[in-house]
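Board work, copied verbatim: Rieske (2Fe-2S) protein
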Amino acid sequence: MQQATTATEQPADRANAPRYDLRQIDVDPNFWYPVAWSSKVRPGKAFAARFAGHPIALIRPEYGPVYALEDRCAHRQVPLSKGVVDDKGCIKCCYHGWAFDQQGKCVTVPYLNKEGVGRPVKAYPCREKSGLIFIFPGDPDLADKVPVPDIAQVGNPEFKTRQFSPRLKCHYTFMHENLMDMNHQFLHRRQMGSITARFLGQDKGDNFMEARYSFARKGGNQPLAEALIFGKHHDDGREQPVEEVVSIRTTYPYQTLQIHDKDGDLIMDLWACYLPLGETQQVTQAFGLLSVKKPKWTFLLDLAWPVLGLFTHRIFEEDREVVEMEQNAWRELGGDHNIEVFPVVKSLRDLLARSGVPNRHAQPLEQG
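↓ predict structure ↓
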């Protein structure tokens, strides 16, 4: 992988640091990024994944932990993910049988029968947590110093959790902006009726940005899935009390959405990471988990689960369409022409810009 200047190496004086088009800011590689669901990588098999234009082979031996290598054999650059996992847990290239171990060392060139002949391939630090396989694509010496994130309420028996992993034709920053800005509920009027977001406040720091909202129903019928999670809300013409608080937080590079009821109890917990796939990072694979608090009668949530899944899918498809339209406009106009007025999103954009890494196509913007 081409070495890039990380966010921690950016100029300390941010006021004098060059500014770049946000859609030309790559993610900082010095974090743990999910690249596959655990269930996709079966024992004794290899699986092809990607990170920002770099092919990754995930290998799960029959015994022992999964590991990650560059998905190119050092011999003829054939994908190692097409190979065979041997009884020692090594991956053997499908072409000539070169074998590589968990550290990427070539341990066998079978037709020469001597050591030190084959070249190694790049190995990535790899961890498995909460049903996801993570790699650390940056400086491997930093991997043990950076924690693998905690994810929603996976493993908490009081919650029921679903996975989602859509692919979107847009830069990952559009996804952060979309979720953080709850003022776009007009987009979802067909799914949710007429509701208004009420901004309750924000917090921010060097590596995070959080905004809090409540919602008031202004008309239309409340969707069944929403009522099952939050309870029934009606518009009776009066000022509606704050029943739930929705907190959206980008803790770079991850994003969460949590909903607490009026008593302060957590009732929904969403975690998402937007994995860039292509070299320009304008295609994104989202990995997300949504945890919903089980009601007293658990079977009610089980019965409603398909309805909830359909509801969230429809909401996401509307978001997908609009962020992909934003990306298309960026291409047609030759850059970011967005006019942002919401202070929360302005702060978020600043966080994403200073935390990421300008890519090789980025040119400093004129100051002013």
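The longest strand covers residues 208-219.
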